[in-house]
Amino acid sequence: MKPINVGLLGLGTVGGGTLTVLRRNQAEIARRAGRQIRVTHAAVRNVERAHAKYAAEGLTITDDAESVVDHPDIDIVVELIGGISPAKELVLAAIDNGKHVVTANKALIAKYGNEIFARAQERGVMVAFEAAVGGGIPIIKAIREGLTANRIEWLAGIINGTCNFILSKMRDEGRAFDDVLREAQDKGFAEADPTFDIEGIDAAHKIAILSAIAFGVPMQFDAAHIEGISRLEAADIRYAEELGYRVKLLGITKRHADGIELRVHPTLIPARRLIANVEGVMNAVLVKGDAVGATLYYGAGAGAEPTASAVVADLVDVTRLHTADPNHRVPHLAFQPDQLADLKVLPIEEVVSAAYLRMRALDRPGVLADVTRILADQGISIEAVIQKAPAEGEDRADVVMLLHPAKERAVNEAIARIEALDSIDGRVVRLRMEALNG
User: Fold this and answer.
1) Scanning 18, 43, 66, 430, which has the fewest C-beta atoms within 10 Å of its C-beta?
2) CB-based contact 340:333 (threshold 8 Å)
3) What pLDDT, in 10s, does the model give residues 46-63?
4) Which residue in 141, 206, 248, 254 is the catalytic one?
5) Is 88 annotated in the active site?
6) Looking at the predicted structure, is the pLDDT value of residue 329 above 90?
């Protein structure tokens, strides 16, 4: 049978890993795909360097990405450039040329997936993007196909390895955020400009994709609530541990009758949960289906070959279905395109969750009563309180409270009133809590 010809856009970390895996496991992959998958063209910025590292018979290396997208003999274009432009233009051009597309570009899919999938549907081609979320973890395939009998109720994921590394180090060693971030950069776990990671944007791209697949809704990244970890203090991680919790940056999405939650923020999780014990740069996603219950998917969320594993898996899937009737392929967002639900993303003020509060309070009688009265006025009950002794020579101390689930708006109003008390110094730290008990 005629081989499937692939054109790579990008031969960086993931592109190089993809080429390596395809070459090393060529026979095994062909057995699974039913025909040979071969990379015939690759577009790179530095042709000379790529030639020295990857040159082989039958591989054309060029700095002209459009020539790869337009080449008549290429069946699948693999976009591994990253970012929005020129990736978006090249992907749409490939689709218009009748070529299937495989991509690891979470930002592109989260922001422009609706447009890209619609164009692919019109042209009868596939866009596969398993590598866009969770690196080597086959989480998209699991939700889209393995859990297809289920009504997905919610999912929560540790989907940014940089943040998980930082939080693990802060907990284990009691170090400040800035100190651990520098170590992450030195080890190559964080970019020179780490904003996308530490401010939660990368995780928001990924949870927007998972939410769309889980609930059969269009991509709604722009409606996500996003908080990062850059303001987290070691004290809060320490107090969480004392109370039996771990702090993780989670992407969370939940289905309700009137809409869906779509949020990224630092979250307290009970330390006994498996997902709370995912450490370092590893990723994990917990998915709750009505039939199967809670299922956990764990593995390497980044890296050359883990991500290449997902890219090659997509290549095999596309190869298997290359000649299939477009109307009988697995839909991009799990549900048939004309069956996507019109569920809005709920404003964060409408979300109900438990909360952790830390405040610096004057050590005198009546202060705690004032705080609890404010919470009671908002209908918020308290689960636990830790009141620390003041340091020697000081008249103020940390007070930590765990609150039962309440609407975000009520908690915000209570925090504003607490911060206005003369007995409270500075801002009240608030972190959300999730039981994740399935």
Assistant:
1) 66
2) yes
3) 999 999 999 888 999 999
4) 206
5) no
6) no
